């Protein structure tokens, strides 16, 4: 583990333009669909971070070509579908996308595919996916745990058909099944058994499938994917709007201004909701020719919001709540207990350590500011907890976070970008 990171304290306004690398979620979908397609595809500006490198490595292990385009400054990937085959070992690390998107692909391979990952991956909920694969005719050996590690015994084809899926703990279970479904003999008619968190991420999957020529219909109960080819497609990956959260939050905390360039006009990324949420917290948010510009006043309004659609924004928003002028209430996020760490517990510990008052609800958090104090907090191996600590540290002198290397999951140079933002005078952080 690298030494604890002393997060920079910043009593004066920031003023910076912060470009961001590609979206984790869009890169993951692009890789899987390109792997299942009828010809080679190019991914321009994909996210190159632990989660997406693990996705690429997992696909390679199954026989897909995922190669660097050495000539491209943006580290493009060229994806060449191949015959899917085991035996293979897939390391999912701590990536929910690999955990839930690759098993349905593995089911299309010939031979056993074993999936394992970090110790915490063994605790991430996945029983709904295992049960659904079995209902679709796939043999999965999970030792009765419904979690990793498990082995998918692919036979080269999946019957598919009608299935009811428990995706109450992760939308990724639905996305994973839909992504591979056009390659199932009967396609897929999927109905969620109950509530589904992070619905915009399912919509992102549906749009990505249609962009690859797949016939997907919303049935009212769920989604139907017709069997058929997946068209190859080159694509440019949008910047990761969820990873914009800590940088934009810095504008609110310091009463400064931060612009994220190339903010898409239209997007399926749930991070786009930062526009609305940061306004609710008192920021001025403008779409300028350069990108999304957020300006803070130096005071932060408390937030009362259901974050069920945008759970991954919670750590940074909760950090802002700890610095706000009153009590905030964040709900609809019980499923965050199954994320990289139990994020409700972790946020309770971290925000309390710097002086906030925190109450855990079954599905959320109530956060009130308190007398601020320095603290050494844990990252819990969670990239977004490091982002949250960095936001707190702007306002609270002496916030240190152990295990800061967790940021490699989706933004390996987070600390360099953070320092660049703070050093910049209306400058671009490159
Ligand atoms: O499909 C995706 O790319 C994601 C879906 C969401 O997962 P959950 O539904 O498990 O929250 C989100 O939190 C995660 O960061 C990315
Ligand atoms: C929940 C997250 O990740 P994962 O894709 O591993 O579920 C996240 O990035 O906030």
TrEMBL record:
Source domain of life: Bacteria
One MF annotation (Gene Ontology) recorded for this entry: 3-phosphoshikimate 1-carboxyvinyltransferase activity
All copies of domain Enolpyruvate transferase, residue ranges: 11-418
Keywords annotated in UniProt: Amino-acid biosynthesis, Aromatic amino acid biosynthesis, Cytoplasm, Transferase
UniProt: phosphoenolpyruvate binding residues: 24, 96, 124, 172, 343, 384, 409
Catalytic activity reported: 3-phosphoshikimate + phosphoenolpyruvate = 5-O-(1-carboxyvinyl)-3-phosphoshikimate + phosphate
Pathway the protein takes part in: Metabolic intermediate biosynthesis; chorismate biosynthesis; chorismate from D-erythrose 4-phosphate and phosphoenolpyruvate: step 6/7
Protein localization: Cytoplasm
Record Pfam families: EPSP_synthase
PROSITE patterns found in the cross-reference section: EPSP_SYNTHASE_1 (PS00104), EPSP_SYNTHASE_2 (PS00885)
Record carries keyword Transferase: yes
Main location group: cytoplasm
UniProt-listed Enzyme Commission number(s): 2.5.1.19
Active-site residues, as the UniProt record annotates them: 312
Binding, 3-phosphoshikimate: 24-25, 29, 170-172, 198, 312, 339
InterPro entries, A to Z: Enolpyruvate_Tfrase_dom, Enolpyruvate_Tfrase_sf, EPSP_synthase, EPSP_synthase_CS, RNA3'P_cycl/enolpyr_Trfase_a/b
Assembly description: Monomer.
Family listed: Belongs to the EPSP synthase family.
Function text: Catalyzes the transfer of the enolpyruvyl moiety of phosphoenolpyruvate (PEP) to the 5-hydroxyl of shikimate-3-phosphate (S3P) to produce enolpyruvyl shikimate-3-phosphate and inorganic phosphate.
Protein name (database record): 3-phosphoshikimate 1-carboxyvinyltransferase
Native species: Geodermatophilus maliterrae
Underlying gene: aroA
């Amino acid at each position: 583990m690298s030494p604890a990171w002393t997060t920079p304290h910043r009593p004066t306004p920031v003023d910076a333009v912060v470009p961001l690398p590609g979206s984790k979620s869009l890169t993951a979908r692009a890789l899987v669909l390109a792997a299942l397609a009828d010809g080679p595809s190019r991914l321009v500006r994909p996210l190159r971070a632990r989660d997406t490198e693990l996705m690429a490595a997992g696909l390679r292990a199954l026989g897909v070509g995922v190669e660097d385009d050495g000539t491209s400054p943006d580290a493009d990937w060229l994806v060449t579908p191949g015959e899917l085959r085991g035996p293979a070992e897939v390391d999912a690390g701590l990536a929910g996308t690999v955990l839930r998107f690759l098993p349905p692909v593995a089911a299309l391979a010939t031979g056993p595919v074993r999936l394992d990952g970090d110790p915490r991956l063994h605790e991430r909920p996945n029983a709904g996916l295992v049960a659904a694969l079995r209902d679709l005719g796939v043999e999965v050996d999970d030792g009765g745990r419904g979690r990793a590690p498990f082995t998918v015994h692919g036979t080269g084809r999946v019957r598919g058909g009608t299935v009811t899926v428990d995706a109450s703990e992760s939308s990724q279970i639905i996305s994973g099944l839909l992504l591979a479904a056009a390659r199932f003999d009967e396609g897929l008619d999927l109905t969620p058994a109950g509530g589904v968190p992070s619905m915009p991420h399912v919509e992102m999957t549906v749009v990505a499938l249609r962009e690859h020529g797949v016939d997907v219909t919303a049935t009212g109960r769920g989604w139907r994917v017709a069997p058929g080819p997946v068209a190859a497609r080159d694509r440019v990956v949008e910047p990761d709007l969820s990873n914009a959260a800590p940088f934009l939050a810095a504008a609110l905390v310091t009463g400064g201004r931060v612009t994220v360039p190339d903010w898409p006009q239209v997007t399926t990324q749930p991070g786009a909701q930062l526009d609305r949420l940061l306004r609710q917290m008192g920021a001025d948010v403008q779409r300028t020719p350069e990108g999304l510009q957020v300006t803070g006043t130096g005071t932060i309004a408390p937030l009362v919001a259901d974050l069920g659609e945008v759970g991954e924004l919670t750590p940074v928003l909760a950090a802002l709540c700890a610095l706000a002028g009153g009590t905030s209430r964040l709900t609809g996020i019980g499923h965050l207990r199954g994320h990289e760490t139990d994020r409700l517990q972790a946020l309770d510990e971290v925000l309390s350590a710097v002086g906030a008052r925190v109450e855990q609800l079954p599905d959320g958090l109530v956060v009130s500011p308190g007398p601020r104090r320095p603290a050494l907090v844990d990252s819990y191996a969670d990239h977004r907890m490091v982002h949250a600590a960095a936001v707190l540290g702007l306002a609270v002198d002496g916030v240190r976070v152990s295990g800061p290397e967790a940021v490699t999951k989706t933004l390996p140079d987070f600390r360099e970008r953070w320092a660049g933002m703070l050093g910049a005078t209306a400058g671009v952080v490159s």
